[in-house]
């Protein structure tokens, strides 16, 4: 069931103003959306748990953008699942859009940069069975599931252009976090910097600044692309919400 947009009241319509919104557009529980989002949250948490079991350095593990973005996705989808199950108002698109952007960054960077030997920043290595399972859950399953939820289970038009730059706050803050953490660790420490394109020992601070600008522009372009796509994608209506107003509303 697609999340319904919020009801609106025509200015000057006194009689309409006296009618509760719930009488015009029934809130309604959305069990399919709730179940799907709960499964996505479970997949993200399961991937993190599997990585935790197989890791001998939890500080290093939780410094990865992959882990952090999946935990954010799990929180957002669990919250959204509860609202869908109880028929409560949907989450703000600022929140759900941020979760979608971050998990999209995780999936795209992994598949096109970190797993690509020709990128210059590959992190290919032998993995244990647990690591392989976690890898698929965190880099493939959750990004695809988040995209499906956005495209099929939510109403379009909730993302605003100002959201695109607001969502970049976390990725921008991740840069000093990774650099400060690396500076506090002894040189030669395994996993001192979480990703090759943030490795000061390999590229120096000037090279890291260049990488940060390139990736930052790419992330902003992705945020804009998601925002624009959300404005033009079709509204996949269901019989139950045909009486809903056509105005855009918050997603999830």
Largest sheet: none
Poorly predicted tracts of residues? 6-26, 238-252
Number of helices: 10
Shape: globular
Strand tally, please?
Answer: 0
Structural class: mainly alpha
Q: Roughly how many Å apart are the termini? A: 11 Å
Indicate the percent of residues in helices.
55-70%
- Report Rg: 21 Å
Summed up, the domain count is: 1
Topology order in helix (H) and strand (E) letters: HHHHHHHHHH
Give the amount of beta strand, in percent: under 5%
The overall pLDDT, averaged over residues, is 86
Please tag this protein with its features.
single chain, 252 residues, mainly alpha, Integral membrane regulator
If you had to describe this structure to a student in words, what would you say it looks like?
Keywords: Membrane, Transmembrane, Transmembrane helix. It comes from Streptomyces caatingaensis. The chain crosses the membrane at residues 32-50, 62-81, 93-114, 134-155, 167-185, 205-229. This is Integral membrane regulator. InterPro entries: Pr6Pr-like. The structure is a single chain. It is globular and about 55 Å long. 63% of the residues lie in helices and 0% in strands. The chain has one domain (28-236). Helix 6 crosses helix 7. The chain has 252 residues and is mainly α. It contains ten helices and no strands. The chain has helices at residues 14-17, 21-24, 31-54, 58-61, 65-86, 93-114, 129-152, 161-166, 169-184, 200-232.
């Amino acid at each position: 069931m697609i999340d319904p947009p919020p009801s609106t009241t025509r200015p000057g319509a006194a009689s309409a103003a006296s009618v509760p919104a719930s009488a015009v557009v029934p809130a309604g529980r959305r069990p399919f959306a709730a179940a799907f989002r709960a499964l996505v949250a479970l997949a993200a948490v399961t991937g993190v748990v599997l990585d935790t079991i197989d890791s001998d350095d939890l500080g290093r593990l939780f410094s990865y953008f992959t882990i952090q973005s999946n935990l954010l996705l799990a929180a957002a989808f669990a919250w959204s699942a509860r609202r869908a199950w109880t028929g409560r108002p949907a989450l703000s698109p600022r929140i759900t859009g941020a979760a979608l952007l971050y998990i999209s960054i995780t999936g795209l960077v992994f598949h096109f940069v970190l797993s690509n030997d020709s990128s210059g920043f590959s992190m290919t290595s032998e993995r244990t069975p647990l690591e392989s399972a976690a890898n698929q859950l965190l880099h493939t399953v959750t990004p695809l599931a988040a995209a499906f939820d956005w495209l099929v289970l939510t109403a379009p038009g909730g993302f605003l252009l100002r959201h695109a730059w607001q969502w970049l706050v976390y990725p921008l803050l991740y840069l000093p976090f990774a650099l400060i953490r690396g500076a506090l660790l002894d040189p030669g420490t395994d996993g001192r910097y979480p990703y090759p394109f943030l490795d000061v020992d390999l590229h120096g601070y000037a090279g890291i600044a260049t990488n940060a600008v390139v990736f930052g522009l790419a992330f902003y372009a992705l945020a804009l692309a998601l925002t624009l796509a959300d404005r033009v994608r079709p509204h996949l209506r269901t019989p139950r919400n045909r009486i809903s107003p056509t105005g855009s509303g918050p997603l999830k």
